[in-house]
C-alpha cells in the first residue's frame, strides 16, 4: 500500500515536472516570436524610413542597430534595419537617410559579411550626393586599427558625396557613454531631443552546476566543459550566439564565450581553456572559471544574439570546421539538428594529442550513431601517426567537400583566428577558387566565429 502511494506520488511529481518544462518551452517560444514580431514591425515601415545598417562580426553592432531603430520609431521617425553587406550603393542612395553601426574585426578589417560590399562598392567612389548619413564605429583601443572599418566607411561615404549629419561616434570596448552620445545625436533626425537611455543588458544570475575537465594529461592547456543553469529567468538563444560572463571584479571587462548548448538542454554550456601566462600565473577569467569558481556558485551572465554565426538553413548540409575550444560553437550547431531531417552534418576537428585531446569523444560517437553527425574527421597535430592541422582535411577530402558544397552546404568555422581560420581560408580558396569562396561568403554559406 505504502509502495503504491509512493509510486502514485512519484508519478504525480513527474507529471508536474513535465508540465512545468512544457510551460517553460512554450513561454520561451512565445518570447522569441514576440521579439521577432517587434523587429518585423520596424522592418515593415515604408520607403521613407531611415535606413539603419549594421556591419557586425559578433553581434554588438547588430544589437545597437536595432536599438537605434527603436529609438527613432519611438520618436515617430520610421526606421528599417538591414545588414550593410546585403546592400549596394544604389540602395544607400535610394534610402536618402542612413545610419550605420559598424564594427571592426581582425586587424582593422571589415566584418566577414561585408567582404563583398568592400570589394564591390567601396573600391571606388560612389555617387551618394543627396544621402545624409552618420556612422557609429565600434572598436577596441587595444587593437592597432582602432575602429578601422568604421573610419574607412565614413571616409568612403564622404568621398562619395554623402553629407554627414553629425561627426562619427567611436566606441571603445562597448563604452556606454559613447553609445549614449550617439543616441543624443539622433535628434538630428527626429527633430526632438532624445534622452539617452542606453545601458548594456543586465547580467542574469546563473549557477555553475557541473564542470568537467575534458583533456587530462594533455600537452596543451586544460580545457573544461562548464554547465550553468539559470536562476529565476527563462533564457533563450540560438546556435551561434555568444554569452558574456561577468568577472568577480566589477572593474574588469566581461569575457565572451561561444555557447555550446541550446535552451532545450536546460543549461548554457561553455568550453573554456585555462590560459597560463609566461610567469606561470593563470589568466584572470579562465583561471577563475576553470579552477576557482566552486560548483554551486552563482555568476552574472548575459546572452547576445549573433546572427553572423547562425546557420542560414536548418536542414541543408552543414560542414563544421574547428579546433580546440572552437568545438563549443560547433556543438550548438550539431545539437540544433537533433530533431531535424537534414542533408548531412560533417565535423572536421583538430587538436594536439589523440590520447588526451579527443574532446567530447563519447558524445561525438553517440551523435554519429543517431545520425545527428553524419561524418567526423579529426586531426591531431602532435600525434606521431598524424601531425596534421585541421585544414589538411580540406585538401584530403577535396572531392567530398566539393560535392557537399554543390549540394548546398554551409561552412561554419569556429576556433583560433591565427593559424586555424587562416589556414582553413587558404585551403578553401585553393580548392574552390576566390570567386566561389566569395560567393559562399555573400550567400551566408561561409561563416566564422574566430578569436
Ligand atoms: C578577433 C577580433 C578582432 C578585433 N579587431 C579589432 C581591430 O582591429 N580594431 C578595433 O578597433 N577593434 C577590433 N575588435 C573589437 C571589436 O570591434 C569590438 O569588440 C566590437 O564591439 C565588436 O562589435 P560586433 O559584435 O558588432 O562585431 C576586434 C574584436 C575581435 C573579437
Automatic annotation (TrEMBL):
Domain called FAD-binding FR-type: residue spans: 201-312
GO molecular function, one term: NADPH-hemoprotein reductase activity
Keywords: Electron transport, Flavoprotein, FMN, Oxidoreductase, Transport
One Pfam family from the record: NAD_binding_1
Enzyme class, first EC level, given as a word: oxidoreductase
EC number annotated for this UniProt entry: 1.6.2.4
Domain Flavodoxin-like residue range list: 50-187
InterPro entries: FAD-bd_FR_type, Flavdoxin-like, Flavodoxin/NO_synth, Flavoprot_Pyr_Nucl_cyt_Rdtase, Flavoprotein-like_sf, FNR_nucleotide-bd, OxRdtase_FAD/NAD-bd, Riboflavin_synthase-like_b-brl
GO CC entries: cytosol
Protein name: NADPH--hemoprotein reductase
Protein source organism: Brevundimonas variabilis
Amino acid at each position: 500500500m505504502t509502495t503504491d502511494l509512493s509510486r502514485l506520488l512519484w508519478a504525480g511529481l513527474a507529471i508536474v515536472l513535465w508540465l512545468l518544462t512544457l510551460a517553460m518551452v512554450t513561454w520561451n517560444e512565445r518570447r522569441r516570436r514576440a521579439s521577432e514580431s517587434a523587429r518585423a514591425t520596424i522592418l515593415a515601415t515604408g520607403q521613407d524610413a531611415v535606413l539603419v545598417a549594421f556591419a557586425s562580426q559578433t553581434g554588438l553592432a547588430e544589437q545597437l542597430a536595432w536599438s537605434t531603430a527603436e529609438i527613432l520609431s519611438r520618436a515617430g521617425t520610421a526606421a528599417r534595419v538591414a545588414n550593410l553587406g546585403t546592400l549596394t550603393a544604389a540602395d544607400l542612395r535610394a534610402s536618402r537617410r542612413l545610419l550605420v553601426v559598424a564594427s571592426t574585426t581582425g586587424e582593422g578589417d571589415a566584418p566577414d559579411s561585408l567582404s563583398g560590399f568592400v570589394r564591390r562598392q567601396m573600391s571606388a567612389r560612389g555617387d551618394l550626393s543627396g544621402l545624409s548619413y552618420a556612422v557609429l564605429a565600434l572598436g577596441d583601443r587595444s587593437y592597432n586599427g582602432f575602429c578601422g572599418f568604421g573610419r574607412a566607411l565614413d571616409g568612403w561615404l564622404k568621398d562619395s558625396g554623402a553629407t554627414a549629419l553629425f561627426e562619427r561616434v567611436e566606441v571603445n570596448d562597448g563604452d556606454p557613454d559613447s553609445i549614449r552620445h550617439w543616441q543624443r545625436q539622433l535628434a538630428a533626425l527626429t527633430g526632438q531631443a532624445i534622452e539617452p537611455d542606453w545601458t548594456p543588458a543586465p547580467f542574469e544570475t546563473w549557477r555553475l552546476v557541473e564542470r568537467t575537465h575534458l583533456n587530462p594529461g594533455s600537452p596543451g592547456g586544460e580545457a573544461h566543459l562548464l554547465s550553468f543553469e539559470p536562476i529565476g529567468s527563462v533564457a533563450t538563444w540560438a546556435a551561434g550566439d555568444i554569452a558574456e560572463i561577468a568577472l568577480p571584479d566589477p572593474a574588469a571587462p566581461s569575457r565572451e564565450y561561444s555557447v555550446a548548448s541550446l535552451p532545450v538542454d536546460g543549461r548554457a554550456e561553455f568550453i573554456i581553456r585555462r590560459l597560463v601566462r609566461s610567469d606561470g600565473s593563470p589568466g584572470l577569467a579562465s583561471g577563475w572559471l576553470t579552477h576557482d569558481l566552486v560548483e554551486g556558485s552563482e555568476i552574472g551572465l548575459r546572452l547576445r544574439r549573433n546572427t553572423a554565426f547562425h546557420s542560414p538553413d536548418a536542414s541543408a548540409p552543414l560542414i563544421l570546421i574547428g579546433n580546440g575550444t572552437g568545438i563549443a560553437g560547433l556543438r550548438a550547431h550539431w545539437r540544433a539538428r537533433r530533431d531535424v531531417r537534414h542533408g548531412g552534418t560533417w565535423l572536421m576537428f583538430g587538436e594536439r594529442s589523440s590520447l588526451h585531446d579527443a574532446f567530447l569523444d563519447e558524445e561525438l560517437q553517440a551523435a554519429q550513431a543517431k545520425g545527428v553527425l553524419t561524418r567526423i574527421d579529426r586531426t591531431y597535430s602532435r600525434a606521431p601517426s598524424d601531425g596534421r592541422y585541421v585544414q589538411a582535411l580540406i585538401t584530403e577530402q577535396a572531392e567530398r567537400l566539393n560535392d557537399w558544397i554543390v549540394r548546398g552546404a554551409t561552412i561554419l568555422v569556429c576556433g583560433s583566428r591565427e593559424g586555424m581560420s587562416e589556414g582553413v581560408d587558404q585551403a578553401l580558396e585553393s580548392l574552390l577558387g576566390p570567386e566561389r569562396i566569395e560567393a559562399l561568403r555573400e550567400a551566408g554559406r561561409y561563416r566564422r566565429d574566430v578569436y
